[in-house]
Amino acid sequence: MPWVELVVAGLLEVVWSVGMKYTAGFTRPLPTAGVVVAIAASMTLLARATRTIPLGTAYAVWVGIGALGAAVFGIVVFDEPRTAARLGFLVLLGIAIAGLKLTGQSG
Q1: Helix and strand totals (H; E) in the chain
Q2: Shortest CA distance to 62 belongs to which of 75, 47, 76, 73?
Q3: What is the tens place of the pLDDT at every residue in 24-42?
Q4: What pLDDT is stored for residue 46 in this prediction?
């Protein structure tokens, strides 16, 4: 269950990081509220996951999921650059996240 919590926490990090683009500098109340809720939920789930998963592993996976998800979202939705090098490094990031799961303590 801690790994499920960690993955959901990472996905919520994608939600709040992408959501910040829609807050207009936290001047739009509804998107801002959504970002605040997503941050709180993401942090709560991360904290719960670290009860079992080593902190370094949990944090790296959480940040990795957030970074990978936000980058992919940016490419797909915001038409950000899709260079071969960028896509290659995103694949490497995904491999690193999977590797941390596979080599970390089970929880």
Answers
A1: 4, 0
A2: 47
A3: 999 999 999 999 999 999 9
A4: 98
Cβ atoms of residues 8 and 45 within 8 Å: yes
Q: What is the DSSP letter of 81?
A: -
Sorted by sequence, the CB contacts under 8 Å of residue 71 that are 6+ apart come out as: 80, 86, 90
Tell me which residue has tokens 């491999």. Answer: 95
d(CA 74, CA 19): 12
Burial class of residue 3 in the structure, from the number of CB atoms within 10 Å of its CB (0-12 exposed, 13-18 middle, 19+ buried):
middle
CA angle 96, 70, 89 (to 5 degrees): 40
> For residue 61, how many other CB atoms are within 10 A of its CB?
25
Q: For the full predicted model, state whether its pTM sits above 0.85.
A: yes
Q: How far is residue 99's CA from residue 107's CA, in Å, rounded to a whole number?
A: 15
